[in-house]
Design a protein that fits this description.
Helix content: 25-40%
CATH architecture of the largest domain: Orthogonal Bundle
CATH superfamily of the largest domain: Phycobilisome linker domain
Strand order of the largest sheet: 1-2-7-6
Strand content: 15-25%
Largest sheet: 4 strands, antiparallel
Radius of gyration: 20 Å
Order of helices and strands: EEEEEEEHHHHHHHH
CATH class of the largest domain: Mainly Alpha
Number of strands: 7
Shape: globular
Number of helices: 8
């Protein structure tokens, strides 16, 4: 039997009846378990040793009154169950207020660990991003490009449709939903051949992103020159 830990807005314990379960991830990783008696749908992905991850839609119908949310599915032949302890505390990790972050390279990097990777940074990785930002090796736009198209984020979003990808970008970078007109305009551009990489680059050139970088004292993109006030 295998025991693992994961975050579903609260600590959970995962176990599998089959002995070859390697890990379990949940998409989205910031699932809100909801109010008493509500059901929440999301995808649990079981990764087996030497096997291909298989997706299984799971609906959490736990009794919140006893604070013991349980999800289970038979995925790839191995039954696994996630059992929660207590109630979720505080907002989801990608919902932290901007004002709660330090106005530094550390705060900027942590923001996108939270919003893009949906987790807190590990010290070694955070220190490396801080050093690269502070030395001028990369800009804010470079960081989001590398986060989004890095292996960790791609495991979460690689199967997204164009609309899902754009919705993800607006939430991850601007912490809001796209307006209907803007969403349709981006969808039209992507339908005409604009790549996801180009879309992210354009987001990094936007005034909204420039203002976000200014909040943290980060250079927004290569060649950026602040206009005289």
């Amino acid at each position: 039997m295998v025991f693992l830990s994961v975050m579903l807005c609260a600590p959970v314990l995962l176990h599998a009846d089959s002995g070859d379960l390697e890990s379990i991830t949940v998409d989205p990783g910031y699932v809100n378990l909801g109010a008493l008696g509500q059901s929440t749908s999301y995808t649990a992905i079981a990764h087996y040793e030497g096997g291909t991850p298989a997706d299984e839609d799971v609906t959490d119908t736990a009794d919140r009154e006893i604070n013991n949310p349980v999800i289970s599915t038979n995925n790839g032949g191995g039954l696994f169950t996630a059992t929660g302890f207590g109630e979720p505390v505080g907002p989801a990790i990608n919902e932290r207020l901007l004002s709660s972050y330090e106005k530094t390279a550390s705060g900027f990097s942590t923001l996108f660990y939270n919003r893009i990777l949906r987790r807190n940074p590990e010290k070694e990785g955070l220190d490396a991003w801080i050093a690269r930002l502070e030395s001028g090796e990369i800009t804010g736009a470079d960081l989001i490009q590398q986060f989004i198209f890095g292996e960790e984020c791609q495991k979460i979003i690689s199967g997204y449709s164009n609309e899902e990808f754009l919705t993800f970008l607006y939430k991850a970078i601007f912490n809001r939903k796209p307006g209907e007109a803007a969403l349709n305009a981006w969808l039209a551009r992507m339908g005409a051949g604009m790549t996801k990489e180009k879309v992210v680059k354009q987001f990094g050139l936007s005034e909204e992103f420039v203002n976000l970088c200014k909040f943290f004292g980060i250079k927004p993109y290569p060649g950026y020159v602040e206009s005289a006030s």
